[in-house]
Amino acid sequence: MNPRTQEPIAFRVMLRMTIKAGAEADFERVWREIGDAVTSHPANLGQWLSRAAEESGSEGVVYYIVSDWVDEPGFREFETSDRHLEHRQRLHPYRSGGTMTTMRVVAHLPGTPSAVSHHEWETVRL
């Protein structure tokens, strides 16, 4: 929660997409090429593309797309726009399935970047 307003920090959308086997490189390329259709929307705070490490199978490779928005109305405005429809149409040929989850970010604990390796951290911690 935003400590000043007690409102959620952001509205987060997570897409789980199964991309057809063999289409991963083209999907990633097109996602990068058209990403500004999402990130240029005034309510968008950014988006991330991640490839699952262990969820791939014969039906394809699993990707997660996470995008943060100022609020839910801002996301819903984008979701119903022509810009979003075109974005979806460009990515659709690569998909064999997918789901969408929405959520409100209520807390954030930032990490502290460090040059200490995980092994060194574990040694100090113990």
UniProtKB/TrEMBL annotation:
It comes from the Bacteria. Pfam families: ABM. The keyword Glycoprotein does not apply. Gene3D superfamilies: 3.30.70.100. PROSITE patterns: ABM. Residues 11-103 form the ABM domain. One of its GO terms (molecular function) is monooxygenase activity. Transmembrane segments: none annotated. Keywords: Monooxygenase, Oxidoreductase. This is Antibiotic biosynthesis monooxygenase. It comes from Phytohabitans aurantiacus.
